[in-house]
Design brief:
heterotetramer, A mainly alpha (479), B mainly alpha (571), C mainly alpha (623), D mainly alpha (101), A: 479 residues, mainly alpha, two-stranded antiparallel sheet, 19 helices, D: mainly alpha, Helix Hairpins
């Protein structure tokens, strides 16, 4: 453990330190704003240190962690989105959460972030498992944080039970693999070679399969998708955003790591199962969202479909798949943050604006928000001029190059169905506004701060939709 | 560079109009009118500048810039005679559109004009872009504003119509994207150059089956836009529900993007595959012609009727394009323009009637002539145009397509298509009968066309009559591009020698197509020499001609013999 | 002088244009002057050009500009003047001018006075283009154009839907013929790589062997076009309904000029017909059949204009017969004479109708000869000419020539001759039935007023021509004066005769004279001063059948129209659209199904997860 | 004496299946938690067995982590259960189905 290690771990260390500091701070003095500032500064600080770093060579800590550009990129993504989530959390808590004790929320939030940040660089079952659990357990709390709301509790419980169940699968899978291979590092897994016919190989594959249950669960893929809508609905919008972006993004990073380092492309049966899962997710996710009137549930279902799309890149393989997936998840995170942030801002004092009714005539009531939301929805639908189009194009490129025609066609069908429900929302926003209920009773400053963030996100989406070259270059720079 | 400026001009004007709507509703109209007028001016200037002499060189204007190097995607705008024609049409109609929506649109004027101009920008992009990615980009881009135009300012069923339009085009568009990518990678893997550049992809070689599948992607997208039966069903709803300007753009320009795509991309990129598709395509074309006419005759909604007329007219385009004949192709280009003008005018009239009596139901109209003779006269002109009356542009287009395709391989189908002359009369006269003739159900007290409307209609009328009497002004521009396409499609380059077995093996269509060339040579009597010479010079293929004349399955050997005699005599 | 040819064509257009734009502002007089004046001017020009042309009858070509040039098809906007087209433009402009003058008074009180003249002028111009065109495409332009004018003028009184439907019928039926014509263009261009008439006519004999299939097809297609325009069997049904038009229109379009366009077309493309003998024979047969059928129907009409309409059909039948016999000059001669007297008849009938308060039924007229002497006498001359009373009338010379050739020409036969002679008998019969019913017997109603000079002058001029016009072409055994045929045969070939004895011709002339006079006498017996009930009489089945024009309408309605409309209407909703709707519906069902699985039950969720795990494992264990 | 790894794994599998079956069958939320514990421990057993077989410490290390995680999980879980009981007055999960569709 010499100096360079410390320097390299600095972001995570700062984060951890920030958590401890906030803990003490809360113990000393409860103040919402103060805690918020503390949190955001911590995140900002670690983000800055992260950006200052330049990885010439990837730097590994035993088998446990491997910090390379890839990991760095994902960490940055996670920290950045947590920052945005924090801002919206502040707005939402301040406006919709009269109860006492607002502060711990930020603690747990940062803990989750820490878990995610470690997860994306972990290359070993143990580190993977531990960081995953840090993330997951803090998620339980985040989801059910508004404990007076029965929905929150219900969501929390559901997530707890299912997540725990899935981790059990994960662990057992790991155990099986370990029992055969005798190593728990992804790398080692790739190195061991054995006749792929023997019993042992079957057990190995079975282990991977059981891990897939957990991974699929975290990514909300069919058939492990059931939890998503309920959790999104039950949790507060920022939390949903956290789940949709950070936990899923981190898990995707691990999946990519695992696939590539452990070279799962050897096992045809695994690719087959992934293909099936991808197809099912694309179709069922979109179909489920088709006539959904609850925006948050709709976003949940669409996320199922989107991760179905993402699997195409994962399956497509390293050369083109990795950058495609990375680009897509980046865009997806941006749009999702925007979407949930928007839900937060549209919401009225007592309850969040989940029902599509709340969006009627938004175009003529709040043109800016409506325009941003339209851009976001179009981006999700993958229409040109928005980042979503470029991302989808990137994915298709991957799929077509590896001539995964089935997946490509399913994507086409899926996105046509998807277009339908995105348009439904847009149409709702364009309808003449029947409901003349006054807008959200948000305090001015926080509202405008939120709008500002949204505008930035919207512009980013457009920017990536028109000139994505720079981001593509960055991503191609990753190993 | 001017091409880029055109697009910037449109988008900029749109944004300006949107912003200006903050002050009052008049300003956006004025701004967009000025913008479109400038656009029209530019295209007119380009048109006057253009001289066919330089047509021999590659492009009139071209502009290229890097866009996404990682994928070999360029921002490549190029103009040749064809796109210039399309631009002229676009700019002309854009002025018309602004004028017709002057009074009609009162809600959210700024946003309306923003969408209108964005739409036009997208269409312009389609007609100019020669990078497949850029083409697809603008192809998708033009959906959104049109969707807004339909579903914000449309009639009663606008939401449904808008969605239908968007879904149809989006679905087909994605298929095209798949094909584009397929082409991209095949070309890349063969040559190592990964690029979306049209001109480089032109000489991509691939297995016939693959080519066919890839081409289907393109063709489906284009035929959906072209609203060919059985992919037409989005069109009637969209046209009926859209506001007048929307209908004009839909009929006048969006449909044309399909035709343009066929001529510019589907044919040159996949010559052999197109030949395989030709019989089906022509069949569908004829079916659309007649089916559309039949449905048009049945409709009671004025705009819906006109919409089905469009279906029928677009059938002609498919027929013309896939008969691979220069004359037919010229007819197609003509059809693209005159259909835009005539159908657009009919939609404007329908809109005007709707504004005045607030119904599109033919049964509630009748006897309007007494009240609005000017409108009646205009209606008469364009009804006659849409049934292809000589002296008006549509006649030139239709007769060229029909005569041309009869020279090709589909004589019977062409003759069947000729039945349209009768059915067209039936539906066209139905309009006159129901709207302007007959008893008045109630005594209309409605204003006739005013100055603004008369300006619009008279300009359209003069265009359609001008094209009817002096179509050369169009063919002058279309000649070079059309001939390029025809050469590309009709004489696929083969290395010498492999000729015969290639023919024997599979593609009978090449045989048919060679025979076609031979027919040209034989039938053209005086022209025989010219054609043989140019073919031989370009492709050094006298041997081919011999082999063709002696093809075992050549339908009429004696004609071939006669041809040989004649040509030997003249040499 | 010839160089002014283009002006002849342009003047009517100019008149139409001026009226169309400034029309509603002018007083009636001015518009009338513009309308009549423009046509009269071109008539005068025609005379001048004609006289110069008589001196040197080499065809004269005037190219305005090149229409377009694609892929070898390069038609010009060009006018070609030769003897045939000269005859036609003479008739068109001259008769046209007279009819314009007539209309100026006839339509004076009509609200659409200006519109009427716009359409009429437009028609004249387009008709001139038709007959002067040097290529088929330009000819087609005029061809369709006059169709349009006919449509507009039949539907001129648009308030009455009946007229509208008549107009539509006329247009659609003729359009059927036009479609055939268009197809013939495809073949012609495919073969000759041009649509220039002269080039085709010169190239055709070399390219096509006599009676070859393709030539046959082309000829038949052309015939189809001619039949449609000239209201011959089987497309004759539109003309009787076209009588909904104002009388001047009937006189100009549906008697003198437009309906004879078919005759012109066949005469123009005569070479193609000579290559295809079967087709040419069919022309003769169609003509013969039509003239009988139409004549029979004319016998049973009550509407005076309907009588004339059917008579027109049957007279054009005579022309077709002549064409079929290869007697080109005879056909054109008859066309000329027919133009005079039939126009006159229509104008006279129109005058009568207008003074009888729009009464069309002959049975409600009667006794008019004292009250309207001028109309009566002119009408009588025209009728005599129509029923070909021997020696004195022009109709005799023109028609008798055809009847004679029906037997004597090498293409002729006894059958054709019989048809012709029977037709002549019928013609005379119904003509004088009409005369007697209208002008004799006891009057049923009083005429309101006497027509003014603008109506009477044209009548008299035309009367003179339909009396004197015959003497420019006399049979060989009586004067043997062959001005017309010489003139025409500069362009068209001479009819070849099989039998050539003067006295045989004399026999036939005597026969036909007897027939004509006999028919008139019969008419006298049957209809002169007989008291007829003014009301529509009861008809038995046969009479009804003839009255309805041999029920062709009924037949077509049952066989074609009704099924078509039925087809159109059953699929109004566009079945294909339904298919897509179904697709959407299925998707919605799937959605409902899947949403049901999201039942919020934790245990169910866990179950699904477990199931998923099991499925994955099974896939892995048994790939 | 040493037990072949297969037996150990078999035991683990059996335990796991028991836990899973219980989780799916029981309605009472507490019991569901318990079943999850069984599953986790099954995984733990598997790790220990494998670790022993390979003579490595990782297996047991992992087991420790599993225990810790399970403890944390249960603590949160119980807290939630208390809230649930407050609101619905029962421990039956089938009551917790407000969100659906």
């Amino acid at each position: 453990m010499e100096a360079t290690d410390i320097r390299i771990l600095l972001p995570i260390i700062i984060l951890a330190g920030g958590i401890l500091f906030t803990l003490l701070l809360v113990a000393v003095k409860r103040n919402h704003l103060l805690t918020f500032i503390c949190t955001s500064t911590t995140l900002a600080a670690s983000l800055i240190t992260l950006c200052c770093m330049t990885y010439e060579k990837s730097h590994s800590f035993g088998d446990l962690f491997l910090l390379d550009r890839f990991g760095l990129y994902y960490q940055g993504l996670i920290l950045l989105s947590t920052l945005v989530v924090t801002i919206f959390s502040y707005i939402s808590i301040r406006n919709f959460y009269p109860e006492k004790r607002k502060e711990e929320y930020y603690l747990v939030l940062m803990l989750g972030t820490l878990g995610a940040a470690m997860m994306v660089v972990s290359t070993h079952f143990i580190s993977f498992f531990v960081s995953l659990e840090i993330l997951t357990i803090s998620l339980y709390t985040l989801i059910s944080y508004y404990r007076e709301r029965s929905k929150a509790i219900e969501a929390g419980l559901k997530y707890l039970i299912l997540a725990a169940m899935s981790s059990a699968f994960l662990l057992f899978g790991m155990a099986l693999i370990y029992s055969i291979s005798g190593t728990m590092s992804f790398q080692g897994f790739a190195e061991i070679s054995f006749p792929l016919t023997s019993m042992s190989s079957v057990i190995i594959v079975a282990g991977v399969g059981m891990m897939m249950v957990s991974i699929g669960f975290k990514l909300g893929l069919v058939p492990f998708h059931m939890w998503t809508p309920d959790i999104y609905e039950g949790a507060s919008s920022p939390t949903s955003a956290f789940i949709a972006t950070i936990s899923k993004g981190a898990m995707l990073a691990v999946l990519l790591h695992f696939f590539i380092m452990a070279d799962l492309y050897r096992f045809k049966s695994i690719l087959l199962t992934f293909t099936i899962i991808a197809v099912l997710s694309m179709l069922i996710g979109n179909l489920l969202a088709l006539r959904q009137n609850n925006i948050k549930r709709l976003l949940a279902y669409s996320s199922i479909a989107h991760f179905g799309y993402l699997l195409i890149a994962v399956i497509a393989g390293k050369e083109i798949g990795l950058p495609a997936a990375t680009f897509y998840i980046t865009v997806y995170i941006i749009t999702m943050l925007g979407a949930f942030g928007l839900v937060t801002l549209i919401s009225r004092s007592n309850e969040e604006a989940m029902d599509i009714e709340a969006y009627l005539g938004l175009f003529w009531r709040k043109p800016i928000l409506a325009t941003i939301f339209t851009v976001i929805l179009l981006s999700l639908a993958g229409i040109p001029l928005t980042a979503g189009f470029m991302a989808k194009f990137f994915l298709l490129t991957a799929g077509v190059e590896e001539s995964k025609w089935l997946l490509a066609f399913t994507l086409v069908v899926g996105s046509v169905i998807g277009l339908y429900y995105y348009l439904r929302v847009i149409v709702a926003m364009m309808k003449k506004d029947e409901n003349t209920v006054p807008g959200a009773s948000l305090s001015r400053i926080s509202y405008y701060a939120g709008v500002l963030v949204l505008i930035i996100l919207g512009v980013l989406v457009m920017e990536l939709g028109t000139s994505p070259a720079w981001l593509i270059d960055v991503i191609n720079g990753l190993p | 560079m001017i091409l880029v400026w055109i697009i910037i001009l449109l988008i900029g004007t749109g944004l300006l109009a949107w912003l200006a709507s903050g002050w009052n509703t008049f300003l956006p109209r004025l701004i967009s009118l000025v913008g479109t007028l400038i656009y029209f001016g530019i295209t007119l200037w380009l048109w006057l500048e253009y001289d066919p002499g330089i047509g021999s060189q590659k492009w009139i204007i071209s502009y290229t810039a890097e866009w996404i190097p990682a994928f070999g995607i360029q921002f490549k705008l190029v103009m040749d005679g064809l796109s210039l024609l399309m631009l002229l049409l676009t700019s002309f109609l854009s002025v018309i559109c602004v004028l017709v929506s002057w009074k009609e649109i009162n809600r959210r004027v700024g946003f309306f004009h923003f969408n209108l101009l964005l739409e036009l920008a997208g269409i312009t992009g389609i007609f100019l872009s020669l990078d497949l990615f850029l083409f697809y980009f603008s192809w998708e881009l033009m959906l959104v504003p049109m969707y807004f135009l339909i579903s914000i300012w449309g009639h009663e069923d606008r939401i449904y119509a808008g969605k239908k339009f968007f879904l149809f085009t989006q679905a087909s568009g994605l298929l095209m994207l798949l094909s584009i990518l397929g082409l991209y990678f095949i070309h890349g893997q063969n040559t190592g150059i990964y690029t979306f550049d049209y001109e480089q992809l032109l000489d991509a070689t691939m297995a016939p089956q693959t080519a066919f599948l890839l081409m289907l992607g393109f063709v489906v997208a284009f035929t959906v836009k072209l609203s060919t039966v059985p992919l037409h069903s989005w069109l009637p709803d969209a046209h009926t529900q859209a506001p007048t300007a929307g209908s004009v753009i839909l009929a006048g320009l969006l449909l044309k993007t399909g035709a343009y795509g066929l001529i510019r991309f589907a044919l040159p990129l996949f010559p052999e595959a197109s030949h395989q598709l030709a019989p089906l395509a022509v069949l569908l074309g004829v079916v659309s012609i007649l089916y559309g006419a039949k449905l048009a005759f049945a409709q009671t909604d004025f705009k819906r009727l006109v919409a089905y007329i469009s279906v029928s007219h677009m059938g002609f385009i498919l027929l013309g394009v896939y008969s691979f004949n220069e004359m037919a192709m010229h007819g197609v280009v003509m059809q693209m323009i005159v259909h835009a003008v005539s159908t657009g005018a009919l939609f404007i009239i329908a809109g005007a009637v709707y504004d005045r009596i607030h119904t599109r139901d033919l049964h509630q109209m009748g006897g309007l002539w007494r009240q609005v003779p000017r409108m009646g006269t205009m209606g008469l002109v364009f009804v006659m145009a849409s049934m292809g009356l000589p002296g008006l542009g549509n006649f030139i287009a239709e007769i060229l397509i029909l005569i041309g395709s009869f020279q090709g391989n589909f004589k019977v189908l062409t003759v069947i298509a000729t039945v349209i002359l009768i059915t067209a009369t039936a539906y066209a006269l139905r309009i006159m009968q129901k709207v302007f003739y007959g008893k008045e159900h109630k005594v209309w007290e409605i204003p006739d066309f005013g100055i603004r409307e008369m300006i619009v209609m008279l300009s359209l009328t003069s265009v359609i009559i001008w094209l009817g009497w002096n179509p050369s002004s169009v063919f002058r521009l279309s000649k070079v591009p059309v001939q390029k396409v025809i050469q590309k499609i009709n004489i696929p380059e083969y290395s010498q020698g492999e000729e015969m077995e290639r023919i024997d093996r599979d593609n009978i269509y090449n045989v048919a197509n060679f025979l076609d060339i031979k027919y040209v040579a034989i039938n053209k009597g005086n022209q025989a020499q010219k054609i043989i010479k140019e073919v031989n010079n370009t492709y050094g293929r006298r041997t081919e001609f011999e082999t063709i004349n002696y093809l075992p399955n050549s339908p009429d050997i004696e004609q071939a013999e006669e041809f040989k005699k004649r040509s030997s005599k003249t040499e | 002088m010839k160089e002014l040819l283009w002006l002849i064509v342009t003047l009517p257009f100019a008149g139409a244009l001026i009226l169309a734009f400034g029309g509603r502002k002018f007083p009636h007089a001015v518009s009338a002057i513009i309308g009549v004046g423009s046509v009269s001017l071109s008539a005068i020009l025609t005379l001048l050009v004609g006289f110069e042309f008589l001196g040197d009858t080499t065809p004269f070509l005037q190219v305005a500009w090149q229409w377009f040039d694609v892929y070898g098809l390069s038609p010009d906007i060009a006018f070609r003047l030769d003897t045939v087209s000269l005859i036609f433009i003479f008739i068109i402009t001259f008769v046209g001018a007279l009819i314009h003058l007539y209309s100026a008074e006839f339509m004076w009180k009509d609200e659409g006075f200006v519109r009427f003249f716009v359409f009429m002028n437009l028609f004249i111009g387009l008709m001139l283009i038709l007959v002067l065109a040097d290529n088929l495409l330009l000819l087609y332009l005029g061809w369709e154009g006059v169709g349009l004018c006919s449509y507009l003028l039949i539907g001129y009184w648009y308030k009455d839907p009946k007229n509208g439907y008549a107009a539509r019928k006329a247009f659609i039926v003729t359009r059927i013929g036009d479609a055939a014509l268009a197809v013939s263009f495809y073949i012609l261009f495919m073969t000759f790589n041009t649509l220039n008439i002269q080039d085709i006519l010169t190239a055709a004999p070399g390219t096509w062997s006599l009676g070859s299939g393709i030539a046959m097809a082309t000829a038949f297609l052309l015939l189809g076009g001619a039949v449609g325009k000239s209201a011959q069997l089987p497309l004759q049904t539109w003309l009787p309904d076209a009588m909904a038009a104002p009388s001047p229109v009937s006189a100009l379009l549906h008697a003198a000029t437009m309906v004879t366009a078919g005759v012109y077309l066949i005469a123009r493309t005569h070479v193609l017909f000579e290559i295809a003998p079967t087709a040419q024979h069919t022309v003769a047969i169609i003509g013969a059949a039509t003239l009988i059928i139409a004549g029979m129907s004319a016998l049973y009409q009550h509407d005076i204009k309907k009588v004339l309409a059917y008579s027109t059909i049957s007279q054009i039948g005579y022309m077709f017969l002549a064409l079929g016999l290869g007697a080109w000059s005879a056909a054109l001669f008859h066309f000329m004479i027919h133009a005079f007297f039939k126009a006159l008849l229509f104008l006279g009938a129109g005058a009568v109708i207008s003074v009888m308060r729009d009464e069309h039924n002959m049975f409600k007229m009667g006794g008019l000869w004292k009250k309207l002497p001028i109309i009566f006498w002119t009408f009588l001359i025209a009728s005599a000419s129509l029923s070909a009373l021997p020696l004195i009338t022009a109709g005799y010379y023109s028609k008798d020539k055809i009847i004679w050739l029906a037997f004597a020409s090498d293409k002729g036969s006894v059958g054709l001759w019989l048809a012709a002679i029977v037709g002549a008998f019928i013609t005379a019969l119904y003509t004088f039935r009409m005369v007697f019913l209208t002008f004799f017997g006891k009057p049923h109603a009083e005429p309101t007023h006497r027509p003014g000079w603008m109506i009477t002058i044209p009548l008299m001029v035309l009367a003179f021509f339909s009396f004197a016009g015959g003497f420019i072409e006399l049979p060989q055994n009586m004067g043997n004066l062959t001005l017309v045929s010489d003139f025409v045969e500069k362009t068209l070939p001479v009819a070849t005769l099989s039998v050539l004895q003067p006295f045989t011709e004399l026999i036939f002339q005597i026969i036909s004279s007897i027939v004509a006079i006999g028919a008139v006498f019969l008419a006298y017996i049957l209809f002169f001063n007989k008291p007829f009930p003014a009301a529509e009489p009861q008809r038995n089945a046969v009479q009804r059948f003839f009255f309805k024009g041999w029920d062709f309408d009924l037949l077509y309605d049952k066989v074609i129209v009704t099924p078509m409309i039925f087809l159109a209407m059953i699929n109004k909703k566009d079945i294909i659209d339904q298919f897509y709707t179904g697709l959407a519906c299925i998707t919605r069902q799937l959605n409902a199904l899947l949403s049901a699985t999201q039942n919020g039950q934790l245990r169910w969720y866990a179950m699904v997860v477990a199931a998923g795990a099991i499925i994955i494992l099974t896939i892995i264990f048994f790939p | 004496m040493n037990i072949p790894m297969e037996y150990g794994l078999l035991l683990a599998v059996i335990l796991f299946c028991i836990g899973l079956a219980g989780l799916l069958i029981r309605r009472n939320i507490i019991f569901m938690l318990l079943c999850i514990e069984i599953m986790l421990n099954a995984a733990g057993v598997a790790f220990v067995v494998a670790g022993a077989a390979w003579g490595q410490a990782e297996g047991q290390v992992m087991f420790i982590f599993i225990l810790a995680m399970a403890a944390a999980e249960v603590s949160v879980g119980l807290a939630l259960i208390i809230q649930l009981f407050k609101q619905t007055g029962s421990l039956d999960v089938t009551n917790a189905n407000k969100m659906k569709g």
